[in-house]
Design goal:
Strands 1, 2, 5 and 6 form a four-stranded antiparallel β-sheet that branches. The chain has a two-stranded antiparallel sheet with strand order 3-4. The protein is built from 18 helices and six strands. Helix 6 crosses helix 17 and helix 13 packs across helix 15.
């Protein structure tokens, strides 16, 4: 019995031991399974998050890299940043920029330049670029150059005070209210001359049965002879050489726009308020004055010497553009001078006396009103030639004159003595008149012509003969798709630009 009990105890101990050891093994197996699953889940989550973070990083780096490839000559000459989609070639499209973006993305996804990259990084993320596409782009020429105008205005920053804007608006208002640019004075003068000429050769009865042929000498004939010489010959000194450059308009932006061959972006621009539009236009005009050439301040190696004059007049030659600006300033000055003469009792007394003297000599008093009007217009024109000549020589002339700022006497004006000029005085300079004329010109027209000049100037530089402003991207939106070796696809859409 004793041995039986002892055997029983030993047997129970072995059974109990075996049972305990089996329970621990199952418990450890279950715990390890849970822990291993958690670790693998954490590792996979870390890999996915690392992949997402890497894709965001390479997307930002890739977009920043293509933006860093801005056109150097465009920035150098006009302080504008833009991606040149042609990259110095004759082919200008977004696929070139997509290829550059793909290159940068692939380089940043590659670990080939990292020591032991295959063991440290390659098998963990294993990312491969599958698709790159530029979904949206904005081009400087969009909406007839609205974006170009905006970037140009931003380039001026806050360097320009608003006082100048108020002055320009005041000058424009004076011109518009008084109709100073209507140009009716010249038409009126020609009509008056025809009416006066109609009396020439008329038979008048001096005494009974005695007739005399009337010969009329128009007091303004000498001025008319001067006028036929042309405005540039009257307002420029003989030693001054006027640029003979001619702009080849073929295949410039305006030409391609008319042909419907212009590239267009698809990023919508924010609409500006009326106040913002006025401010933008002002800054844009000041930008043009700063970065483009004009008479007496020509830009070196430019397609046209008188670029500002081209923006306003739109002719393809420097000569025609300068002549057009001189004529327009002369028209404004002539109308303003007529206003002054008509308001001056002293000056009108001189005019009346001169007209009456001529009519007394020819015994034709009914001609007096016509001669008075012709003399006023002639005197105003002579003063206008002096004004324009002074302005183009670097002087200033008030928009509306008074007794102190009036220059020519009646006798000197009618004799056509138009040689004296002065560079002193107060009023509007040549640059101010360009500001006024720009403000009175359609802003879209000025913008298109400005883009023409930018293209022409850039094409004059080495390696840029095929440069197109409608291939200059200001902002891009890229779609990027990356896949891992585990078959997980990651997609990201990111937009980036210069502003």
């Amino acid at each position: 019995m004793y041995f039986k009990r002892m055997y029983r105890k030993v047997y129970d101990k072995k059974i109990r031991k075996l049972f305990c050891e089996g329970y621990l093994t199952v418990w450890i197996a279950l715990c390890l399974t849970v822990i291993l699953s958690l670790c693998l889940t954490l590792i996979d989550g870390a890999r996915r998050n690392a992949a997402r973070m890497e894709i965001e990083c390479i997307a930002n780096i890739g977009l920043q890299s293509i933006l860093a490839e801005y056109h150097r000559e465009l920035m150098k000459q006009y302080n504008l940043f833009a991606i040149d989609a042609s990259y110095g070639t004759s082919i200008c499209n977004r696929f070139n920029t997509e290829a550059r973006l793909r290159y940068y993305l692939e380089q940043n996804l590659s670990y080939d330049d990292i020591f032991l990259s295959e063991y440290l990084y390659g098998n963990f993320l294993s990312l491969a670029l599958k698709q790159v596409e530029l979904k949206k782009i904005s081009i400087l020429t969009d909406n007839q150059g609205e974006l170009f105008r905006k970037r140009a205005a931003e380039a001026m920053g806050a360097d320009i005070g608003l006082d100048l804007l108020w002055e320009i608006q005041k000058w424009v208002q004076v011109i518009e209210v008084n109709g100073l640019e209507d140009g009716t004075e010249e038409d009126e003068k020609r009509q008056l001359d025809k009416e006066i000429e109609s009396f020439d050769g008329m038979e008048i009865e001096i005494e009974e049965d005695q007739w005399e042929t009337l010969v009329i000498d128009n007091p303004t004939d000498k001025l008319e002879e001067k006028k036929r010489e042309g405005i540039l010959k009257l307002v420029l000194s003989e030693e001054e050489e006027v640029s003979q450059k001619i702009l080849n308009m073929e295949n410039l932006l305006e030409f391609r726009m008319e042909q419907g061959h212009l590239n267009h972006g698809n990023i919508k621009q924010e609409a500006l308020s009326e106040v913002s539009k006025v401010m933008e236009r002002f800054l844009f005009q000041e930008y043009l004055l700063q970065y483009m050439g004009r008479y007496t301040k020509e830009k070196e190696n430019s397609a046209l010497q008188y670029q500002m004059e081209y923006l306003i007049s739109g002719n393809d030659s420097d000569m025609d553009n300068l002549r057009s600006i001189a004529n327009r300033i002369c028209v404004v000055r002539e109308a303003a001078n007529v206003l002054y003469l008509m308001s001056s009792g002293e000056k009108m007394s001189e005019v009346r006396l001169a007209a009456e003297l001529v009519c007394t000599i020819i015994t034709l008093p009914e001609l007096t009103p016509l001669l008075e009007a012709a003399i006023v217009l002639g005197w105003a024109y002579a003063e206008s030639i002096y004004d324009v000549k002074s302005i183009m020589a670097g002087g200033k002339i008030p928009l509306l004159k008074d007794d102190d700022s009036w220059h020519y006497g009646l006798a000197a004006a009618l004799e056509g003595e138009l040689q004296e000029v002065t560079q002193e005085g107060e009023g509007l300079s040549y640059e101010d008149y360009l500001r006024v004329l720009m403000m009175m010109t359609d802003i879209d027209t000025i913008t298109v012509r400005a883009m023409n000049m930018v293209e022409a100037d850039i094409r004059n530089t080495a390696g840029n003969t095929a440069f197109r402003l409608d291939g200059c991207y200001d902002r891009v939106e890229a779609y990027i798709r990356v896949e891992s070796a585990q078959g997980i696809a990651y997609e990201i859409t990111r937009q980036m630009g210069y502003n």
